[in-house]
Amino acid sequence: MRRFLPLALAALLVLTLLPGLAAVDATDEREARDLVTAYESTSHREWLSPIYAYEPFFEKPLPGYAPEVLTRRLLVRFLPEAARAMTDVVSSRFVRALLAIALALAVTAIGTRAFGARSGWLAGCVLASSLGLPLAARADGVQVYATLLTWLGLGQWIALLTGRARVPNASLTLGWLSLGAVAMTGGLLPALWPLAGFGLYFALARHRSGDGVRTALASAGWRALDPWMGVLVIAGACLPWYGIMIAIHGPAFIARIPWFPYASGERGSWLAGPPLALSFAVVASFPWTPLLAGALADGAR
Length: 301
What we know:
single chain; 301 residues; mainly alpha; 2 domains; 68% helix; 1% strand
């Protein structure tokens, strides 16, 4: 079975991510707005503030528009104006699809290293066949590459905490640099959930019953991750752009920071966050959602 899993993963990624890239124009408001923002920012040669409707637009950090800006710069260089409109959409989707493929391969590699080859390949197949990956790759690119950066950092930390890192200090630094890149593409809040995940694991592992033997991951704890170093690394990555934007735009920009990368829409109560996150996880994990209750029960045991 193991020899067929790479072929299954490749087939799933091709079938879910690549067909129909040019079938329709922008699929929703977010994809269309990202394309317009990339167009206006590059047309005005604005490399600090995202521009939408000729005004500064604070929905997410400027690097969050990387696929659209990158493809736009290439199209401006190589295509005439009349051929760019639909090509903007297709080329941006193709870049996002490649990033989604990289995300699935990263999850596979991390799962293989931590839990064995079959578990790793199956994890990649589950991600590739879930509803959330192709939807994000079509309409929400920042989710794809912010998540990719997050998992690259998590892979370094898991290798560090389980004693598999060849150069521990390098793995520690690369993990924090990855979260710094997440904060620069998706915002500060998306960079915090990996820390919350590790904190939850450490707390649960300390209360495990049985023979008292802890995994290397649990026994290392926060000391191995050196959170103070992480604060400095993330601050060093974020302060240049965030600091300049605060100096230029002041309170109008500061008020949007906690809501990145979705700071432009209507906002409800913070209390709605957990149930919304759970509902999105259930929908994005379809058709594997029916296994969620059993997986949670198994994890609790």
